[in-house]
Amino acid sequence: MNGRKLLTGVAVVAVAGVCVSSTVRDESFAPPVADHGPVRLVAFDSCDNAVKELRNAMAPYVTAFGIGGRGRDFMLSADGMAADSSAGVAQREAVPKAATPPAEQQNHSTTNVHEQGVDEPDLVKTDGTRVVSITDGKLRVIDVARRSITGTLDLGDRRASQLLVSGDRALLVVENPVVVLDPGFAPDRPQPRDGLSGSEIVLVDLKALKEIGSLKTDGSYLDARQVGGTARVVVRSSPRLPWVYPSQTANEAGALRRNREILQSEPITSWLPRYELVQNGTRSSGTLVDCANVSHPVVHAASSLLTVLTFELSGQLGTGQPVSIVADGDTVYGTGRSLYVADDHRLLPEMPGKPHLPRPVTTAVHQFDISRSGPPRHVASGEVSGTLLNQYSLSEHEDVLRIATTSGTAAPCCRRGGSVAQQPPPPTESAVTTLRRDGTRLVQVGRVDGLGKGERIYSVRFIGRMGYVVTFRQTDPLYTLDLSDPRQPRVTGELKITGFSAYLHPAGDGKLIGVGQEATEKGRTTGTQVSLFDVSNPSAPRRLSQFHLPGSSSEAQYDPHAFLFWPQDGTLVVPVTNQETYQNATSLVLKVEGGQLRETGRIIEPESQNYGGARRTVLIGDQLWSLSAAGAQVTARNGLTQQAWLPF
Q1: Amino acid 395: pLDDT
Q2: Are 392 and 458 in contact (CB under 8 A)?
Q3: Cα four-point dihedral sign 489, 493, 499, 505
Q4: Is residue 444 classed exposed, middle or buried when 0-12, 13-18 and 19+ CB atoms within 10 A define those classes?
Q5: How many percent of the chain have pLDDT more than 90?
Q6: Is 203 within 8 Å of 183 (Cβ atoms)?
Q7: In this structure, which long-range contacts are made by residues 178-185, counting pairs with CB atoms below 8 Å and at least 24 apart in sequence?
Q8: 518 compared with 179, residue with greater pLDDT
Q9: pLDDT tens digit string along 505-554?
Q10: Mean pLDDT across 217-244
Q11: Most confident of the ranges 139-143, 426-430, 578-582
Q12: pLDDT at 417 over 70
């Protein structure tokens, strides 16, 4: 697409996805969409032009009920259906994440992350001498040597869900959904999900256990990454327009006419996120980002903004050097040098009065240079066909970006005006595409497709010059791919077994660990499955060992932060839960020995019946520390005897 100018400054930072050229729009409602090509970002050249463009972009989607169709949420997925929520499938949220084995010289495990040196927010952090956790609205610091809780910071009603730690500073992510009722909102109508918003970033001094600063925004938290002492947090916000709705005094035609008037009269600040900062005993508030720091794709719907906040944890909190883009998305992947953000256009406003049609889905990818301090710098953009599973669908190796996608996602039906129009699902297949930077473009270098026809991707892992893709429908093909020549990526082997792996983890010596679900030959899942694969011969991958726990599921299937593997002695820990009662949650401890998986025992917390059992387990020296909302349990790594229980 051709824009007025290519945005190369910091204002394009951290787009967790961008609605761009693949958006299909009705010609009678909107300008033609530029043809497919290099995805580019452009900047607003003035506030007046910004509000004019935002109004024009949103105008085609205005109805008598605000944005979208009657009685519907604002957004529909581009393929007409929500992401599959089948048990054991890695969901596209703050998406599942994975790990690099800890360094040999360390005597403690760290958060299981995708790339070494790029930390990800989680419930628990440890430096080997202390354990910092965030549960039930409280931050707790535990002294490892004394096996005691040395401090607690009560956050009150704030629901902190994740934290990052650098030295004696912790950055907490607080998600407090707030229903923002527009004036005239009909009380008998359900509030659209985009009316839920609100997040807060809290900087904490871990030594003094006190808040240094607190930044609230009306945007919902998406994801964060930390390199060194620098954290970048991405939030998503929706425009705040005071829509009216049909009532006894106004019919639909009148409400539609009034909503169109409201759109054309709203100022630019209605699209920009707000903030409230408490720092050094003072409170300030206002519009978080200036319109001069807002950028956009050439084609967009003006229905959401993504804002990236950059924090140096060693300093003051501030407002995070905010920059925004008119976009939607949720996939973020980072290395030590680059930040990649992707958007597969799954969330698009509904065009009122028009029948729903499946839209062609592509994924836009933007590369940012994060090698310097401060906000990232946009350097290149590109596009591939299909949709991502999660951040593990992306991997950078030797300046080449590898992307695994699934095309032809099924759209079985879409409800329109009380009727259901059945549509035959298009065939699905997956592919791996390689991209390389050429100037300001990410250009396709090679592609291998035809993976799992009629299936979709359930897990992906790239390790060096090899790639591993699991697809599933009734059986689980594990594909091995040789990516050593990015111009000619190729499938080298395939292993078909029942069930699937939703998370893949490198185990060294040509081995791969898979965590997922066993299944019948017809594809019905039967319980947690841990597999050990031998992929040393890429042309003949094989499963060496399998552990199956019937009737159970594991959080590690959809959140790899819950997965622990200690390669020094092969200790493997995953939480498991009874699928029917969601009780009796335990930490399943296995041992990888040569080509075998052996169960060494299970860690059962004293109050697991009431609190759901362990969420995370970390290894420190010869101890396993299992933490949940109930407390922390210390267990001997050898023998699994309980050594301490610290109730919360």
Answers
A1: 97
A2: no
A3: negative
A4: middle
A5: 46
A6: no
A7: 178/218, 180/218, 180/240, 182/66, 182/240, 182/241, 182/242, 182/243, 183/242, 183/244, 184/242, 184/243, 184/244, 184/245, 185/243, 185/245
A8: 518
A9: 999 999 999 999 998 888 888 899 999 999 999 999 999 999 999 999 99
A10: 88
A11: 139-143
A12: no
| DSSP one-letter string for 477-502 | EEEEEE-SSTTS-EEEEEEEEESEEE
Query: If 0-12 CB within 10 Å is exposed, 13-18 middle and 19+ buried, where does residue 356 land?
Result: middle
Most distant CA pair in the chain: distance in Å? 75
Residue 249 corresponds to which tokens in the numbers above? 């005094």
**Residue 319 near residue 277, CB atoms below 8 Å:** yes
What span, in angstroms and rounded, lies between the C-alpha atoms of 444 and 38? 10
Coil, strand or helix: which one is 230?
A: strand
Torsion angle in degrees (nearest 10) through CA of 121, 126, 132, 134: 30
What token pair was written down for 250?
């106004």
Classify residue 277 as left (phi > 0), alpha (psi -120 to 50) or beta. Answer: beta
- Which pLDDT band, with edges at 50, 70 and 90, does 318 fall under? very high
Q: Name the pTM for this structure.
A: 0.81
Mean pLDDT of the chain: 79
Q: What is the pLDDT of residue 26?
A: 30
Residue that the structure tokens 């004696």 belong to? 168
Q: Which value, in Å, is the radius of gyration of the alpha carbons in the chain?
A: 25
Listing DSSP states for 515-534 in one string gives EEEEE-TTS-EEEEEEEEEE
Q: How far is CA 77 from CA 239, 307, 357, in A?
A: 19, 22, 11
Tokens of 78: 């581009």
pLDDT in tens, 573-606: 999 987 765 555 689 999 999 899 999 999 988 7
How far apart, in whole angstroms, are the C-alpha atoms of residue 331 and residue 328? Answer: 10
- HSE at residue 574, side-chain half, CA atoms within 13 A, is 28
